[in-house]
Design brief:
The complex is a heterodimer. Chain A is of the alpha/beta class. Chain A is built from twelve helices and 15 strands. Chain A has two domains: 245 residues, Rossmann fold (3-Layer(aba) Sandwich), CATH 3.40.50.970; 135 residues, 3-Layer(aba) Sandwich (Rossmann fold), CATH 3.40.50.920. The longest helix of chain A has 30 residues. The chains are: A alpha/beta, B mainly beta.
Chain lengths: 393, 102
C-alpha cells in the first residue's frame, strides 16, 4: 500500500534520501534547500539511517567531499541552491569528468545580484554545461519520484554521471501538498546497492582517479563522457518504465498536456507548468486549442523527441525562468529553437523571460502569452522573438 | 599504463578504449611520466668526493637518486627536475650544480 501524506518538496526529498539510506551526505545549508540537510541530519542523529553526515564549511567543500566519497565507492547525496551551486561550479566538472554518479537535490533559486532568495532557474541553468544530468520537477511528488529514479539513472553502468534533481525554491520546496510515498523496502529494492566496478577502497586493486590529462588524451575523455550523456535518454526511459510498474506513475523524457491537437503551445520548466495547465483548462473550455510541453530532462536535451512533439504546432512560446544575457533569449529558448531547426516546416517560436527572482506568475499571465501567440498565428509574423513577461514598462 | 582490457594507453588509443574518467588502474605510474626535460639546472655526481653518507637520496622530491646495496648511483635524468636540493644538502662537494646546456 502506498503511504498518503502531506509534505513540502524539501521534506519529500529528505524522505526519499532517508528511504535510500546513502553512505555519505556532505552538505552546507543555503536557502531554500537548507531543510533537506537539516531534516536529514535529524535522521542521522536519530539513528534512522547509517549515513555519515559531513557538515562542511562551504559548498565547494561539499562537492569536493562528495567527489572523495563517491570515488571511494560510497553512494553520496548532497543538496544546495543558488550561490551554493555556483560555488560548487568548479567541482561539478570534476565530479562529472571523473564519472562519479553523485545525486544532488537542487532547490532552484535566483543567483545574486541583486541579492534575492526567491525562485528562478539561473542557478541550475548556470550549471547546464557541467556534464550533470538535470531532471526538473513540477511539484513535491515529482521531486520525490525523480530523486529516486535519478539515483538509478546516474549509477547505471552505461551512464556513470552525476545527476541533479531540480525543484522550484519555496513554491515547491516549502509549499505543503498531498503526496504518495512508496514503502521503504520497495524504494530500497528499486534503487538497490551502489556497486561501481572500480573504487578507491576496493581491497584487491589500487587505482588513482582524477589524474592530469594531456592534450593527447583529454578530447578522447570528453567524447567518452559526452557519449555517456547520450546514453541517458534510453536509461531514463527504462528506469521510468520500471518505476511506473511499481507506482502507476508515468514519466517520460518530458510531459505533454493537451498538446496533440494544439495550435499554440508553451514549453516550460518546473512549477509554472502547473499554473499553465490551469490556464490551458480555462482556454480549452473557451474552445481554444492550446497545449503545453513540460521539460523533465534538460540534460541531456531530447531534441528529436521534442521536435516531433511540437512539429504540428503553429506558434510556440518558450518560457525561460532565467536570463542568459545572450541578448537573443534564454537558455531553454536556444535549445528548443535549435531542436526545431531540423523540421521542414517549423513552428514560429518566441521566447519569454518570466518569473525572475520569485516574481509571481499567475494563470492570467499565462493566458496573456497564449493571446500573444494567437496574434502571431493570425498575422503570420513572429515579431520580436526575445520578450519579457510581466516586466513593468 | 593499460586500460582494464590490458591494452596499452598510447596517443593512438580511441575514445572507446580509453579509461573512463582517466582512472589509472596501477600504482607507481608516475614512473611513466618523464619530467627530465623540465630541467634548466642540472646536478652532476662526482663519485670521487662521495662518502656514501646518503643524505642526498631521501631529500630528492622525485626519487631521482637511485640507491643500490647501500650506495647511491648516478642521477635518474629521466625524472630529475634540477631543483638543486641534493646539491645544497651534500656536505662533501660530491654534487655540482650548473645551468644545463642543451
Amino acid at each position: 500500500m502506498t503511504i498518503r501524506d502531506r509534505l513540502s518538496g524539501n521534506e519529500a526529498v529528505a524522505i526519499a534520501m532517508k528511504q535510500i539510506n546513502p553512505d555519505v551526505m556532505p552538505a552546507f545549508p543555503i536557502t531554500p534547500s537548507t531543510e533537506i540537510p537539516q531534516y536529514f541530519s535529524q535522521y542521522v542523529a536519530n539513528g534512522e539511517v547509517d549515513t555519515v553526515f559531513i557538515p562542511v564549511e562551504s559548498e565547494h567543500s561539499a562537492m569536493s567531499a562528495c567527489i572523495g566519497s563517491e570515488g571511494a565507492g560510497a553512494r553520496t547525496f548532497t543538496a544546495t541552491s543558488s550561490c551554493g551551486l555556483a560555488l560548487m561550479h568548479e567541482m561539478l566538472y570534476v565530479a562529472s569528468s571523473s564519472r562519479l554518479p553523485i545525486t544532488l537535490a537542487c532547490v532552484n533559486r535566483a543567483l545574486t545580484g541583486p541579492i534575492n532568495i526567491n525562485n528562478d532557474h539561473s542557478d541550475s541553468m548556470g550549471s547546464r554545461d557541467a556534464g550533470w544530468i538535470q531532471i526538473y520537477s513540477e511539484n513535491n511528488q515529482e521531486a520525490y519520484d525523480n530523486f529516486i529514479q535519478a539515483v538509478r539513472i546516474a549509477e547505471h553502468k552505461d551512464v556513470m554521471l552525476p545527476a541533479m534533481v531540480c525543484q522550484d525554491g519555496f513554491i515547491t520546496s516549502h509549499a505543503v501538498e498531498n503526496i504518495e510515498l512508496i514503502e521503504d523496502e520497495k524504494v530500497k529494492a528499486f534503487v538497490g546497492e551502489y556497486e561501481p566496478e572500480e573504487f578507491l577502497l576496493k581491497s584487491d586493486s589500487s587505482i588513482a582517479i582524477g589524474p592530469y590529462d594531456t592534450a593527447n588524451f583529454y578530447i578522447e575523455h570528453k567524447k567518452q563522457q559526452a557519449e555517456a550523456m547520450v546514453n541517458v535518454k534510453a536509461v531514463a526511459l527504462e528506469v521510468a518504465a520500471e518505476f511506473e510498474k511499481m507506482t502507476g506513475r508515468k514519466y517520460g523524457l518530458f510531459e505533454t498536456y493537451k498538446l496533440e491537437d494544439a495550435d499554440t503551445a508553451l514549453v516550460i520548466i518546473n512549477s509554472s507548468a502547473g499554473t499553465a495547465k490551469d490556464a490551458i483548462d480555462t482556454l480549452r473550455a473557451e474552445g481554444k486549442k492550446v497545449g503545453l510541453l513540460k521539460i523533465r530532462l534538460f540534460r541531456p536535451f531530447p531534441k528529436e523527441e521534442i521536435a516531433e512533439a511540437l512539429k504540428h504546432v503553429k506558434a510556440i512560446a518558450v518560457m525561460d525562468k532565467c536570463e542568459g544575457f545572450s541578448a537573443a533569449g534564454g537558455p531553454l529558448f536556444a535549445e528548443v529553437r535549435s531542436a526545431l531547426y531540423d523540421l521542414n516546416e517549423k513552428p514560429m517560436t518566441v521566447n519569454y523571460i518570466y518569473g525572475l527572482g520569485g516574481r509571481d506568475v499567475k494563470t492570467t499571465d499565462i493566458e496573456s502569452v497564449y493571446s500573444d501567440l494567437d496574434v502571431i498565428v493570425e498575422s503570420g509574423k513572429a515579431g520580436d522573438t526575445y520578450r519579457y513577461l510581466g516586466v513593468r514598462e | 599504463m593499460k586500460n582494464k582490457a590490458g591494452q596499452l594507453i598510447t596517443p593512438e588509443i580511441s575514445w572507446k578504449e580509453i579509461t573512463p574518467g582517466g582512472t589509472v588502474y596501477e600504482g607507481g605510474s608516475a614512473h611513466h611520466f618523464k619530467t627530465g626535460d623540465w630541467r634548466t639546472m642540472v646536478p652532476t655526481y662526482k663519485p670521487e668526493n662521495c662518502k656514501q653518507c646518503l643524505l642526498c637520496a631521501p631529500v630528492c622530491p622525485d626519487s631521482s637518486i637511485p640507491v643500490q646495496d647501500g650506495k647511491r648511483l648516478d642521477f635518474d635524468f629521466d625524472h630529475c627536475k634540477g631543483c638543486g636540493i641534493c646539491f645544497k644538502v651534500c656536505p662533501f662537494g660530491a654534487i655540482d650544480f650548473a645551468k644545463e646546456e642543451k
